[in-house]
Automatic annotation (TrEMBL), chain B:
It comes from Litoreibacter meonggei. The chain crosses the membrane at residues 39-60, 103-130, 150-176, 222-248, 268-290. It is found in: Cell membrane. InterPro entries: BP-dependent_transpt_permease, MetI-like, MetI-like_sf, OppC_N. It is a multi-pass membrane protein. This is Peptide/nickel transport system permease protein. The keyword RNA-binding does not apply. PANTHER family: D,D-DIPEPTIDE TRANSPORT SYSTEM PERMEASE PROTEIN DDPC-RELATED (PTHR43386:SF1), OLIGOPEPTIDE TRANSPORT SYSTEM PERMEASE PROTEIN APPC (PTHR43386). GO terms for molecular function: dipeptide transmembrane transporter activity. One of its GO terms (biological process) is protein transport. Pfam families: BPD_transp_1 (PF00528), OppC_N (PF12911). Belongs to the binding-protein-dependent transport system permease family. Its main location: membrane. Keywords: Cell membrane, Membrane, Peptide transport, Protein transport, Transmembrane, Transmembrane helix, Transport.
From TrEMBL, chain C:
This is Peptide/nickel transport system ATP-binding protein. It comes from the Bacteria. One of its GO terms (biological process) is transmembrane transport. GO terms for molecular function: ATP binding; ATP hydrolysis activity. It comes from Litoreibacter meonggei.
Length: 329, 303, 286
């Protein structure tokens, strides 16, 4: 159970880890700013400006102060504030992961329930194979294969990127979610094109959450179906369908919420590799690109934001827990 | 009687004659139930084969995995002497896959050593000592759990520099918290049991209790968890390799090979496909084995 | 004695296992009138399985077979699953051991009782609500309106079991199977729950199958007793004549209980004769 105090401590720990990583990095933050050819004088000025002469604890507090004001420094690549960059790329990831999780939950929960109710039947076997393949397949490879087959050979979907080059920046960005923006603008062509681009990476992410969600649903359901209150429901003369959905399923809602929240958080993060494969301009691509070009502020800023989302989703699932479980009140 | 007793009867005896007998007999019965699980046996078979391939790589591979032949680059599947074709530098893909098995095993073995041991240490100390130590250690564990794993690993590799060893470290750093949780939970149940009190009365100190009595009892649930995690470790390592943060060229690491082949995916699909299939096969094998082991060692957790 | 409600002939319950088929109930026959029939036996004797088999609640891979399970002229073994559902609850109901587990933890008690009623009666929600309130009061629950809104975890064991009884009796069944209904309760409330159950069963002229491991309780509470051992009925006797029982197993059970009127230094340990489980089942028909 998360309390406000433990959230604060977790948050602090998260920031401490990113801070330490930032200090250990084999990149001189001063050199990165002033360049190789700067004079010793310029170097020293920047050194003092960054507060690098202060003790580590003091530096950590500076860092905390900045982060609390959503200031992650400026990107060394484009000299813009990292927070602005993140605000720009994040909607792309959000859009992708949200469609992915909807896909995973809409298919995964019924599949898991069916597999539990008909344990050992062909549908249980299918659910098992789906999950095993999901747990064993490298996501970036499956993404490549998907591109090869559905884009390269069959031509059914759009290729990499969020929209084709003719549609870039056609609709004004309101929410940053291109499917929503194009609808708001009433521009069907952009919507269709964006949809054909998102469908493949989103199904890919959806498949991974489907594998996880269905497996967890199945084992939660099996546990509930062997409970005595299920026998009570049957003794009452309920149909099997009602026994499953009105009684057993009600009891797994709480656990399911936690699993779905976790899976959603994993998609937001797991999209790193997917975004690379599909040239998707989201936070995963952003962190990776920054990493490869040694843009430390951008890497740490991105990491903190993803960590924050993790914690937020945890809090959210905790709140929902209290809504759905009478025993938690 | 004793002379006519077969090995099998001895192993399945209902009343063991000694502690060793009981132990061996329990192992044998576990093996029998494991053996009846076809999928788990397939997994085990694949992994044994993998170890063999890795050990005998120089004998098995038809070519040197590093020798380039630019005249014969991107040869398709089934080319003479190159069953799986060649990559963009004309290197034999099959030979590279065979040598890549060594890297995969190396990574898996290292992570499987570091992470559970670190977790076991943290978890048992936390569970046995309790109080403030427990609170602090578990809070740290929670912080690491709250972190997105791949992003954390990315950040670590960024700090430490790219390379296999650093990739192993980064993955281990993100992998230990669940083990600590498991070990702590086990310790808490064991700590309050009567036999621990008995040992305490005999004068055993905390160190002896933890190392000789608690650790052995945590092992089986940890083994199951490690085996099930193995596939995830392989995928994470391959992911880092794919991003260019793991094994560096010209190393035939499977993830890096996919990354190389990615540029030609539309025209020369096999270059990226073959290493992907290799990763899939091995992590599938670990998942199958893990499922089987869980059923034998930890029947409670079995669905 | 009186009209027969239920006639069970040659009932078997089988479970296929890795080492062959396990017979949990082996050819049990008995009848039930408007009476209180006790089934006694140790754990694993098949007494609970018998109760569940009558309601056809044994899940696959378990198999139930019988020459007949006749409920007032209707053979339950021949009914479709759908027809069986209208038998469950409405004509035969069951109260289980522990209300902590037999009530759905995330539904209010009111919802669970109303549901039991509306499954077999096309009543409006308001009618069902009032009916449920009445029923809760019938099982001596004060403050029934508050209980209707409460969740099972807020109830004590004794209250939980009374709620179970209310829920199971609300569709007005002819037969109630009570499977160890008081074993999980505090001794102090056991009697109270039994009395309430007894009163309702008598008032409504129902048949009661009372499954228990407690010989004295059954002797005290029931009219007739079947003693089960390893899936078979080894002896049938009237409850008031239980202490004259002849079968060595029953005698053994009786002798292994401490008695205030005949104190002994050492209680007898039950010696089991493999022949008991081989001997054919005694018929419990009247």
């Amino acid at each position: 159970m998360l309390t406000l105090g433990s959230i604060a401590v977790t948050l602090l720990g998260l920031l401490f880890i990113t801070f330490v990583i930032g200090r250990v990095m084999p990149i001189d933050p001063v050199l990165a700013i002033v360049g190789e050819r700067a004079s010793q004088e310029t170097y020293d000025t920047v050194y003092l400006q960054l507060g690098l002469d202060k003790p580590l604890m003091v530096q950590f507090f500076y860092y905390l102060w900045d982060v609390l004001h959503l200031d992650f420094g400026t990107s060394l690549l484009n000299a813009r504030p990292v927070s602005e960059d993140i605000a720009r790329v994040f909607p792309a990831t959000l859009e992708l992961a949200t469609i992915g999780i909807i896909f995973g939950v809409v298919l995964g929960v019924p599949l898991g329930v069916l597999a539990a109710v008909r344990k050992g039947s062909w549908i249980d076997q299918i659910a098992r194979v789906v999950a095993l393949v999901g747990y064993s397949m490298p996501i970036f490879w499956l993404g490549l294969m998907g591109l090869l087959v559905f884009y390269g050979i069959l031509g059914w979907v759009g290729g990499p990127g969020r929209v084709g080059i003719f549609y870039v920046d056609v609709v004004p960005s309101v929410t940053g979610l291109i499917l929503v923006d194009s609808l708001l603008d009433g521009n069907w062509d952009v919507f269709k094109d964006a949809f054909s681009h998102i469908i493949l990476p989103a199904s890919l992410l959806g498949y991974y959450s489907l594998a996880y969600v269905s497996r967890m649903t199945r084992s939660f359901m099996l546990e509930q179906l062997s409970a005595e209150y299920i026998t009570t429901a049957r003794v009452k003369g309920m149909s099997e369908w009602d026994v499953v959905w009105k009684h057993a399923f009600k009891n797994i809602r709480v656990q399911l919420i936690t699993v779905i929240a976790l899976s959603y958080a994993n998609l937001l993060e797991g999209s790193v590799l997917t975004e690379i494969i599909f040239s998707w301009p989201g936070i995963g691509s952003y962190i990776t690109t920054a990493l490869l070009s040694a843009d430390m502020n951008a890497v740490l800023g991105g990491t903190v934001v993803v960590g924050l989302i993790f914690i937020l989703l945890n809090i959210l699932s905790d709140l929902l827990y209290k809504v759905f479980d009478p025993r938690a009140k | 009687m004793a002379e006519t007793q077969t090995m099998r009867e001895w192993l399945l005896a209902e009343t063991p004659t000694s502690r060793r007998h009981a132990k061996i007999s329990a192992l044998y019965q576990g093996w029998l139930s494991f053996r009846s699980n076809t999928m788990a046996m397939i997994g085990l078979g694949i992994l044994v084969l993998l170890v063999f391939i890795a050990a005998a790589a120089p004998l098995l591979s038809p070519h040197d995995p590093f020798v380039q032949d630019l005249g014969n680059r991107l040869a398709p599947l089934g080319t003479d002497g190159h069953i799986f074709g060649t990559d963009s530098l004309g290197r034999d893909i099959l030979s590279r896959l065979i040598y890549g098995a060594r890297i995969t095993l190396y990574i898996v073995a290292l992570v499987a050593l570091i992470a559970p041991i670190a977790g076991l240490l943290v978890g048992t100390v936390s569970g046995y000592v309790g109080g403030w130590t427990d609170t602090v250690l578990m809070r740290i564990t929670d912080i690491f759990l709250a972190f997105p794993r791949l992003v954390l690993a990315l950040a670590f590799v960024a700090a430490l520099g790219a390379g296999i060893e650093n990739a192993v470290l980064a993955i281990s750093l993100t992998a230990w918290p669940p083990y600590a949780r498991i070990a702590r939970a086990e310790t808490l149940t064991i700590r309050s049991s009567d036999f621990i009190s008995a040992i305490k009365l005999q004068g055993a100190g905390p160190l002896r209790i933890i190392t000789r009595h608690i650790w052995p009892l945590c092992i089986s649930s940890l083994i199951v968890r490690v085996t099930l995690d193995m596939a995830g470790i392989i995928l994470a390592a391959a992911g880092l390799g794919f991003l260019g943060l793991g094994a560096q060229p010209p190393s035939p690491e499977w993830g890096a090979m996919i990354s190389e082949g990615r540029r030609f995916i539309l025209d020369y699909w096999w270059v990226a496909t073959m290493p992907g299939l290799a990763i899939f096969t091995v992590s599938l094998a670990f998942n199958l084995l893990g499922d089987g082991l869980r059923d034998v060692l930890d029947p409670k957790a079995g669905e | 004695m009186m009209s027969t409600l239920l006639d069970v002939q040659n009932l078997w319950v089988r479970f296929p296992t890795r080492n062959g088929v396990f017979d949990a109930v082996r050819g049990v026959s008995f009848t039930l009138g408007r009476e209180r029939l006790g089934i006694v036996g140790e754990s694993g004797s098949g007494k609970s399985m018998t109760g569940r088999a009558i309601l056809r609640l044994i899940r696959p891979p378990g198999i139930v077979e019988a020459d007949q399970v006749n409920l007032e002229g209707q053979d339950l073994m021949k009914l479709s699953e759908k027809d069986m559902r209208s038998v469950r609850g409405q004509r035969i109901s069951m109260v289980m051991q522990d209300p902590k587990f037999s009530l759905n933890p995330v539904m209010t008690i009111g919802d669970q009782i109303i549901e039991a009623y509306r499954l077999h009666n096309s009543a409006s929600k308001a009618d069902a609500y009032n009916k449920s309130l009445e029923m809760l009061e019938a099982v001596s629950i004060r403050d029934a309106e508050r209980v209707m809104r409460a969740y099972p975890h807020e109830m004590s064991g004794g209250m939980g079991q009374r709620i179970m009884i209310a829920m199971m009796l609300i569709p007005n069944p002819e037969i109630l199977i009570a499977d160890e209904p008081t074993s999980a309760l505090d001794v102090s409330v056991q009697r109270q729950v039994l009395d309430i159950m007894d009163k309702l069963v008598k008032e409504r002229g129902m048949g009661l199958i009372f499954i228990s491991h407690d010989l004295n309780l059954v002797a005290d509470f029931c009219d007739r007793v079947l003693i089960m051992y390893s899936g078979r009925i080894v002896e049938v006797c009237d409850a008031d004549k239980l202490h004259e029982a002849k079968h060595p197993y029953t005698r053994g059970l009786l002798n292994s209980l401490p008695r205030l009127d005949a104190p002994r230094d050492r209680l007898e340990v039950l010696e089991r004769d493999p022949q008991w489980s081989e001997a054919p089942s005694v018929s419990g028909s009247e």
